[in-house]
Write a structure and sequence with these properties.
By secondary structure, the chain is of the alpha/beta class. It contains 14 helices and 22 strands. Helix 4 packs antiparallel against helix 5 (135-142), helix 4 runs antiparallel to helix 8 and helix 6 (232-245) packs across helix 7.
């Protein structure tokens, strides 16, 4: 059997791993968008088009969770000739559908921009639109999703079984555990997906996994610990007090629409309900966030004990006084100048496009505004610049603007496990029985640090693959 690493190698996005069995059955674990390549406007050149392999030869996709850097290329795989099914949890399918439809909507706008630019210019611009799938391709893909419950072994081929274990991180997210037989010998491999953190709002802790011969694990926070030690509601209460009550200010929170925003709304609800905190107007500025919140509400049974009990006592996880969902772009732009103290939660979390860019642009020079960064941002994004202290002047929307707003950062809402969480995940494996541990989904320096840390606790069989590297298992 061969394992080829086609994405998330020495970087954080684009998860895509190909398993080829002796009987030529091929399974793709995740099929994600390479956000770093997309942000740098790079194109893929391959004899197979936008994929480095022939999509028609893939038999099955197993999807760890719905985030675009894990699911975003699935419609293109069908467009390029894939005819198989996608296995995942039901919640992952529901979230993937709205995320992929959102991507298709953005692609429609890109198509129009490309068409308009060609009409204006006599010279044909070299723009690659092959990856721009539309709504119909998303619908075709979703029709081929097959959902399986957690903790139940599912037969995906004559001599192969898959079990999905809760990973935390996001609603429906799973560790993928595969068992199969080759030459009358049982072999096992586990793909971590994204490892969640313990005691995260709404979500269960990552489940321990059975012993595996091979382990493929993410390393996003493999070189650091989460800094925030207090409970989320305590940390958020302190920031709101300083940003909106002590002064009549505006709190801007860049947040991913799926997962992070729900954790934020739940925490605000707890703050207002359990602590009697004065409800300040909260604007959730993302139609995608509204849609994903409804999916979270449908899947309360998958959440942790505290969230289930809160929902039973209060009949709602997310709805509270003064919560407003903004639908139109016009309403979104108007709220940037809201005259009273308020909280604006808007996508995207890395401040790479979306409505949040307008809010940042409108408030970055306002000394009465606070911008709160609550999670990871890829290098060279606007979010990364805000997180890393480039605070004298920033270029936003073609304007150079002085940074007068207060910039704060917390990591209590980060959905990724930190160094300790990742070590705990690996320690579910007996160091004498695991043949290889492959590190993916992290920056190279982070992976090297995590590899050294694992060596200190006795795991010496650790590999940091390169893109396209093939391993015989």
């Amino acid at each position: 059997m061969k394992l080829t690493f086609w994405g998330a190698t020495r970087q954080v996005s684009g998860s895509m791993f190909l398993l080829e069995f002796d009987d030529e059955y091929r399974v793709l674990i995740d099929c994600g968008t390479d956000l770093e390549r997309e942000n740098n406007h790079e194109t893929t050149k391959s004899e197979y088009g936008i994929f480095p392999f022939d999509p028609s030869l893939i038999n099955l996709i197993i999807l760890t969770h719905a985030h675009i850097d894990h699911s975003g290329q699935i419609p293109n795989l069908y467009k390029e000739g894939f005819e198989g099914q996608v296995l995942c949890t039901k919640a992952t399918m529901e979230l993937a559908e709205i995320l992929l439809l959102d991507s298709a909507s953005l692609n429609q706008k890109k198509y129009k921009a490309i068409h308009d630019s060609k009409k204006r210019s006599k010279k044909r611009k070299d723009v690659d639109s092959r990856e721009l799938y539309l709504e119909r391709q998303v619908k075709e893909a979703i029709d081929n999703f097959v959902t399986i419950p957690f903790d139940q072994k599912f037969k995906f081929k004559d001599d192969g079984f898959v079990t999905l274990y809760p990973a935390g991180h996001l609603l429906g997210a799973a560790h993928v555990y595969l068992e199969f037989w080759e030459n009358n010998e049982k072999k096992t491999i586990c793909f971590s997906g994204d490892v969640g953190r313990k005691n995260y709002p709404l979500l269960v802790d990552p489940y321990p996994i059975p012993q595996a011969d091979y382990l493929v694990t993410e390393t996003t926070y493999g070189d650091r610990h989460h800094i925030s030690e207090n409970k989320p509601e305590e940390i958020l209460a302190d920031i709101i007090q300083r940003a909106c009550i002590d002064i009549p200010g505006r709190l801007i929170i860049p947040s991913f629409s799926v997962g992070r925003t729900q954790a934020m709304l739940y925490t605000l609800n707890k703050l207002y309900t359990d602590r009697g905190f004065t409800p300040i107007k909260v604007f959730t500025d993302s139609p995608l966030a509204k849609a994903s919140t409804r999916i979270y509400e449908k899947n309360v049974r998958l959440m942790n004990k505290q969230a289930r009990e809160f929902n039973e006592e209060n009949e709602s996880l997310f709805d509270f006084e003064n919560l407003v969902y903004l639908e139109s772009n016009q309403a979104s732009k108007a709220v940037s100048n809201h005259s009273e103290p308020c909280i604006i939660i808007s996508a995207s979390g890395m401040v790479t496009g979306g409505r949040i860019e307008h809010h940042i642009q409108a408030n970055i020079s306002n000394p009465y505004a606070t911008i709160l960064m609550i999670g990871y941002a890829s290098e060279n994004t606007l979010g990364w610049k805000l997180l890393n202290g480039e605070r004298k002047e920033l270029s936003i929307g073609g304007q150079k603007l002085p940074v007068n707003a207060n910039i704060e950062k917390i990591d209590v809402f980060s959905g990724h496990g930190d160094l300790d969480d990742l070590i705990d995940f690996v320690k579910t494996q007996n160091k004498e029985k695991t043949k290889n541990i492959f590190l993916v989904h992290g920056e190279l320096h982070t992976m090297q640090n995590f590899k050294n840390t694992l060596a200190e606790v006795g795991y010496n069989q650790v590999v940091i693959p390169e893109k396209g590297q093939v391993f015989e298992l």
